[in-house]
C-alpha cells in the first residue's frame, strides 16, 4: 500500500489514524498515495485558525499582506517545474499544467499588486463615501469593512489542484482571514505538494494556512457566524453542504461555484471565411481539449445560426482530427487523460444521455487511439462532438465533464438568448461576432444568467484571454446552476471575507475610526506649512488656509486667450446672459483650480514630490468677476508605501467665495517624501 499523506494543522504535519482513500496516476492507473483525516480534531483546527492565524494576519496591514503574497508567488515560481512534473500524473499536458500552476501563481501576483494599489495603508477598508444624514453636517454615515474573525474553509475541485486553492487563498489572506484548504481526492497529491512548498517557504504567519489531506470530517459542526465556506465542485454537493444545519442555523457565509452548461454563440454575420468564424471554431476546439474538457468554464453548448451548423461541424471536426491524445509527457500529445477512470466513467454515463438526445458527429465515447500509454489503465477519452435539436432538454441539463460539446442551431436573436438561459445559470458565455448590435442585444439579454461574458471579434482576439480563463480582476461565479456564488473580481473577492458595517456618528468620530479626515472634523493650522512636512510629520487634519484672491475680468480674458478656452460663458456677455446657469460672464472652473493651486502651493523644494492627480472635482457655485476666493487645503488620507521612500497624501480642497459658499471641491493627490533615514 502507498503512503497516506499528512495534514498540515495546528502548526505541524499530522498523520491520520486510518488508511484512507487512494489517489491514482491518471495516465498509468498506479496508486500514488492515500488521503485521510481520521484522528484530526477539527474543532481544534478551526480554533487554531481563529486564535493564531487570524490575529497574526490582522496585525499586518493590507500592504504587508500584499507583500507576502508577492513573495509567495516568487517562491512558488521557483518550484514550478516540480509542480508540472507532478501535474502530469493528473493527466495534464504541460500546457494544462501551466494553466493550473502559473495561473494560480498569477492570481497571487495579481492580488499582491491590487492590494498595494487599491487598498489603504491600514487595516480598515472603506466602502463608498461619507453619507450625509443631517442638515447641519454633525451626523454622518460611512460603510466600513473589517475582516471576519473566523476561518475560510476552502473546498476545492479536482480539475485545478493548484489554481483552485490559490485563487481562494489570495483574497482571504489579503482580507486578513485564515484559510483551511481541503483538496479534492483525485488530485489531492498535487495540492499537498503545493501546500508543502507554501509551508516550507516560511513566509506566511502560522495559522494563516492549514491543510486537510482528506475529508472535512465534522468540521462543519464547529463553524460559526464568523467563518465562511467557499466551495467548488458539483451542484449536488453544493446543495448538500449549503443546507448543513450549522450553516443555516448560524448563517455561515457559503459561496459555491458549480458545474454549468456554458454556451458560445456564433453571430449571424460570422459566416465561413470571416475571421470571427475561424475564431469561433478555434475557441470551441480549444475549450474541448484544454484540461481534457474538465473545466467548469468549458463550452458545452455551441449555438450556431442554423445555416452555419454544417460548416461549423466540418471545421471543428477537421481541427479535432489533428488532436493527439495520450501520455501528457509526450510533447506531441495535445490532450492528456481525465483525472481518473472514475471521472471517465462518469463522463461516459452523461454521454449516454446526450447521445440518446442527439447524434455524435466526431469521436467515439468508448474508444480512442492513445500515444505512449495504455488506453485501459489511463483515463483517456476521445473528444466527442454532438449535434441535435436545440430544444432537447438534455443539451441544457446534462453536463459531461470532459472533452464534450454540442453544436446546436438557432434561427433568431431572441431564440438564442432564450436558449442561453436554459442552462439555468452559467459561469461564462461567449458571443463571437463582428456586429455590435447583435453583441449588445445578446449580452444584455443573456447577462442575468451569466457571471462573465466574452465578446470575441477580430479586434480583441489577439489579446483576448479566451472563453475559459477566469481572471483575478473579474468575477468568477454565476447564478443558479453555476452555484450562485462569486469569487475573485479584484477587491470584491477580498470584501467577501469581511463584514460591512454602517458606522454612524459625528465627523470627529468617523475621522478617528476610519483614519480618513472627514469634513466637519477639527483642522489643525500651524506655523509650518504642511507642504514642508515629511510624511511621518504630517497628520490628517493638517491644514493651510490661503487667500483671498480676487478674480477680475482681465484674469478671465487673459486665461481664455492664453489657453485657447474662449467658451462663450466666459467671453460673450450676451450669450452668457442667456445661459440658464450663469446669467452673466463667469470665470473658468480651471482658472479657479489654478488660482487655488497658486494660493496653497509652497514653492520651494521640499518633501512634496509631485501632484499626481485630482479626484472628485466639482464646480458648485459660479465665480463672477470681482469674487474673492479662499482655499482651505486639509490632509485627508496618508498612505505610506512600504517599498518606496515616499507615500501618497490625499488633500481635501475647498475653494470658497466671500460669502463662504464652496465654489469648487476636490481631492488633490500628492506624493510626499519620507524623512531621509
Ligand atoms: P464533488 O462535488 O463531489 O467534490 C468537490 C469537492 O467537495 C471535493 O473536494 C470533495 O472532496 C468535496 N466534498 C464532497 N462531499 C463533501 C462533503 N460532504 N463535505 C465536504 N466536502 C465534500 O465533485 P467531484 O469532484 O466529484 O466532481 C463531480 C462533478 O462536479 C464533475 O463531474 C463536474 O460536473 C463538477 N465539477 C465542477 C467543477 C467546477 O469547477 N465548477 C470542478 C470539478 C467538478 P472529495 O474529493 O474528497 O470527495
Notes on the structure:
The protein has 677 residues and is an alpha/beta fold. 33% of the residues lie in helices and 24% in strands. The strands form seven sheets. A seven-stranded mixed beta sheet has the order 14-15-16-13-12-17-18, with helices on both faces. Strands 9-8-7-10-11 form a five-stranded parallel beta sheet, with helices on both faces. The longest helix has 25 residues, at 94-118. The protein is globular, with a radius of gyration of 30 Å. It starts with 6 loop residues before the first strand and ends with a strand. The relative contact order is 0.10. The structure holds NADPH dihydro-nicotinamide-adenine-dinucleotide phosphate. Residues 155-159, 182, 184-185, 215-216, 232-234, 237, 240-241, 257-259, 296, 346, 399, 401 line the site of NADPH dihydro-nicotinamide-adenine-dinucleotide phosphate (NDP).
Features:
677 residues; alpha/beta; seven-stranded mixed beta sheet; 26 strands; globular
Write the layout of secondary structure elements.
Elements lengths: L6 E3 L2 E3 L6 E4 L6 E5 L6 H18 L2 H17 L1 H9 L5 H25 L6 E8 L7 E8 L4 E4 L7 H13 L3 E4 L5 H14 L7 E3 L16 E6 L1 H8 L2 H5 L3 E6 L3 E5 L8 H15 L9 E7 L3 H12 L20 H17 L1 E4 L21 E4 L5 H5 L6 E7 L2 H9 L4 E7 L3 H11 L3 E7 L18 E2 L10 E2 L2 H5 L2 E8 L1 H8 L28 E8 L2 H11 L4 H4 L1 H6 L10 H12 L7 E12 L8 E13 L5 E11 L5 E12 L4
Parallel strand pairs: 7-8, 7-10, 8-9, 10-11, 12-13, 12-17, 13-16, 15-16, 17-18
Antiparallel strand pairs: 1-2, 3-4, 5-6, 6-21, 14-15, 19-20, 22-24, 23-26, 24-25, 25-26
The structure holds NADPH dihydro-nicotinamide-adenine-dinucleotide phosphate.
Amino acid at each position: 500500500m502507498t503512503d497516506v499523506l499528512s495534514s498540515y494543522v495546528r502548526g505541524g504535519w499530522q498523520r491520520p489514524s486510518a488508511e484512507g482513500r487512494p489517489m491514482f496516476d491518471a495516465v498509468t492507473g498506479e496508486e500514488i498515495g492515500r488521503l485521510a483525516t481520521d484522528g484530526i480534531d477539527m474543532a481544534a483546527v478551526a480554533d487554531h485558525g481563529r486564535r493564531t492565524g487570524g490575529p497574526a494576519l490582522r496585525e499586518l496591514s493590507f500592504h504587508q499582506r500584499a507583500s507576502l503574497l508577492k513573495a509567495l508567488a516568487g517562491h512558488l515560481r521557483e518550484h514550478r517545474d516540480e509542480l508540472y512534473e507532478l501535474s502530469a500524473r493528473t493527466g495534464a499536458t504541460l500546457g494544462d499544467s501551466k494553466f493550473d500552476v502559473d495561473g494560480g501563481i498569477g492570481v497571487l501576483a495579481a492580488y499582491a499588486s491590487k492590494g498595494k494599489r487599491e487598498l489603504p495603508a491600514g487595516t480598515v477598508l472603506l466602502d463608498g463615501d461619507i453619507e450625509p444624514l443631517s442638515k447641519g453636517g454633525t451626523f454622518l454615515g460611512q460603510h466600513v469593512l473589517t475582516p471576519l474573525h473566523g476561518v475560510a474553509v476552502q473546498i476545492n475541485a479536482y480539475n485545478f489542484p493548484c489554481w483552485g486553492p490559490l485563487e481562494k487563498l489570495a483574497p482571504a489572506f489579503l482580507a486578513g482571514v485564515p484559510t483551511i484548504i481541503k483538496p479534492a481526492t483525485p488530485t489531492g497529491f498535487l495540492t499537498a505538494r503545493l501546500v508543502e512548498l507554501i509551508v516550507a517557504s516560511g513566509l506566511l504567519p502560522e495559522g494563516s494556512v492549514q491543510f486537510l489531506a482528506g475529508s472535512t470530517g465534522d468540521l462543519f459542526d464547529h463553524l460559526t457566524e464568523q467563518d465562511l465556506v467557499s466551495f467548488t465542485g458539483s451542484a449536488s454537493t453544493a446543495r448538500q453542504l449549503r443546507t448543513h444545519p450549522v450553516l443555516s442555523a448560524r448563517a455561515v457565509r457559503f459561496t459555491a461555484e458549480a458545474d454549468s452548461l456554458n454556451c458560445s454563440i456564433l453571430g449571424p454575420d460570422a459566416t465561413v471565411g470571416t475571421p470571427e468564424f475561424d475564431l469561433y471554431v478555434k475557441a470551441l476546439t480549444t475549450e474541448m481539449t484544454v484540461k481534457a474538457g474538465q473545466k467548469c468554464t468549458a463550452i458545452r453548448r455551441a449555438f450556431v445560426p442554423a445555416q452555419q451548423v454544417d460548416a461549423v461541424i466540418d471545421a471543428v471536426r477537421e481541427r479535432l482530427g489533428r488532436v493527439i491524445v495520450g501520455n501528457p509527457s509526450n510533447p506531441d500529445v495535445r490532450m492528456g487523460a481525465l483525472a481518473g477512470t472514475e471521472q471517465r466513467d462518469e463522463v461516459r454515463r452523461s454521454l449516454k444521455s446526450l447521445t440518446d438526445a442527439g447524434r455524435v458527429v466526431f469521436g467515439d465515447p468508448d474508444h480512442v487511439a492513445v500515444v505512449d500509454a495504455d488506453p485501459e489503465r489511463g483515463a483517456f477519452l476521445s473528444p466527442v462532438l454532438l449535434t441535435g435539436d436545440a430544444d432537447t432538454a438534455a443539451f441544457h441539463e446534462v453536463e459531461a465533464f470532459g472533452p464534450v460539446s454540442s453544436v446546436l442551431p438557432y434561427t433568431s436573436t431572441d431564440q438564442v438568448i432564450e436558449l442561453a438561459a436554459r442552462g439555468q445559470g452559467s459561469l461564462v458565455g461567449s458571443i463571437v461576432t463582428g456586429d455590435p448590435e447583435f453583441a449588445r442585444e445578446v449580452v444584455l439579454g443573456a447577462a442575468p444568467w451569466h457571471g462573465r461574458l466574452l465578446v470575441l471579434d477580430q479586434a480583441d482576439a489577439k489579446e483576448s484571454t479566451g472563453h475559459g480563463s477566469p481572471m483575478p480582476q473579474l468575477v468568477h461565479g454565476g447564478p443558479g446552476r453555476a452555484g450562485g456564488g462569486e469569487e475573485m473580481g479584484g477587491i470584491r473577492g477580498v470584501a467577501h471575507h469581511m463584514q460591512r458595517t454602517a458606522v454612524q456618528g459625528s465627523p470627529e468620530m468617523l475621522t478617528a475610526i476610519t483614519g480618513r479626515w472627514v469634513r466637519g472634523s477639527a483642522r489643525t493650522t500651524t506655523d509650518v506649512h504642511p507642504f514642508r512636512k515629511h510624511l511621518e510629520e504630517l497628520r490628517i487634519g493638517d491644514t493651510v488656509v490661503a487667500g483671498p484672491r480676487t478674480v477680475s475680468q482681465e484674469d478671465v480674458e487673459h486665461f481664455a486667450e492664453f489657453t485657447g478656452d474662449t467658451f462663450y460663458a466666459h467671453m460673450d456677455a450676451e450669450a452668457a446672459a442667456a445661459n440658464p446657469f450663469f446669467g452673466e460672464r463667469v470665470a473658468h472652473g480651471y482658472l479657479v483650480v489654478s488660482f487655488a493651486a497658486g494660493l496653497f502651493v509652497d514653492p520651494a523644494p521640499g518633501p512634496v514630490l509631485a501632484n499626481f492627480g485630482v479626484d472628485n472635482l466639482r464646480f458648485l457655485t459660479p465665480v463672477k468677476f470681482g469674487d474673492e476666493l479662499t482655499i482651505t487645503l486639509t490632509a485627508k488620507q496618508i498612505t505610506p508605501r512600504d517599498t518606496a521612500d515616499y507615500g501618497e497624501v490625499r488633500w481635501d480642497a475647498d475653494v470658497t467665495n466671500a460669502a463662504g459658499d464652496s465654489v469648487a471641491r476636490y481631492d488633490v493627490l500628492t506624493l510626499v517624501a519620507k524623512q531621509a533615514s
